[in-house]
Design brief:
The protein is mainly α. The chain is globular. The relative contact order is 0.17. It is 56% helix and 0% strand. The protein contains 6 helices and no strands.
């Protein structure tokens, strides 16, 4: 990590842990849930707080995952899917009506 506490290596981002934070059995299952296994990601409008909660996702977990993808994007600027995923996750986390 640098002096500002930002990860400088992909291993420091700990994406595996962030991806499985919702309780999915695999990274592939997370990708399928968010629509990352196809050409287009699922629109943030298609998610509800209820649906996300049933799959173990909270605003905090989504925000941490989005932050992870932002770090990945910064560390590997050619990874365009990281940017797309970060935007999708931020929109979901910020725009839903959460219970708490």
């Amino acid at each position: 990590m640098d002096s500002a506490g930002l990860p400088q290596k992909l291993s420091e981002v700990r994406m595996h842990d962030r991806l499985l934070a919702g309780g999915a059995a695999s990274i592939a299952a997370v990708g399928k849930f968010f629509g990352w296994d196809g050409v287009l990601v699922i629109s943030p409008d298609e998610f509800s707080a209820d649906m996300l909660a049933k799959h173990g996702w909270t605003r905090e977990k989504l925000t941490e995952l989005a932050e992870g993808y932002e770090h990945v994007s910064r560390i590997t600027p050619d990874n365009t899917s990281a940017v797309t995923r970060a935007i999708q996750l931020r929109e979901i986390a910020d725009n839903l009506e959460w219970e708490n």
